[in-house]
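Database export, one record per block. Field names are fixed; values are copied verbatim from the stored entry.
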Amino acid sequence: MKNRIHLLNMTTKMNGLIPTHEDKLPQPGTFRALPSFRIHLLAGMSARHAELRFLQLFGLRMLEARVVGLVGTFGALSLKEICQESDIEKSHASKIIGRLVERGLVEKLGDNQDQRAISVRLTSEGQVLHRAIYAEAQQRNERWLSVLSERERAQLLASVEKLIVGTREMLGMERQEQPLHEPSSGPTSPGVALDLDYARRLHSMLGDLIDGAAGQGRGRA
């Protein structure tokens, strides 16, 4: 009963996080019209929709479902690899893995040579859930992309890949040319926190998009 109440509270909160001014096109020359802002907006809405579906169908948060998906894809992953593949901080990833272990979805594997290098793999129950999660993700992606023609879908995927390459180059140059400032002792800037949150949502959205497109391609093959 407690878990059910928590789920209802979560879905109620997330239902309210829908932009209220998107019925009007953004005016040129404004912040809302910037391409990066539009992509962040799309990523945020897509991530919230995905999380609602995962909560309603499987009782999992989006990052929990993503970890199940990643471990199921690779067979077994270390904590470090999970953090790298999903862009999750180590402490957060550890908590997610702990919850998945408690639910009997993943199990830990020790390393005979290094006890600190713990990997996880799906249990038989986790494997069943992994297939269900992927099927749901494919259906959601198909619905999401249904507003585009086949040509527009191909153009979108090609554009996304180009943007990923270009953004990776920009990030690498920024890290080389601009040394990072030491964080202040005060609270984190809301703007920085918001940008990091948007980046994680964008990463999740693009991952769902590419996975869904790849699944559709295998189906046609």
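Remark 1: The helical segments are 2-15, 35-58, 62-74, 79-86, 90-102, 124-145, 150-177, 190-220.
Remark 2: The longest helix spans residues 190-220.
End of record.
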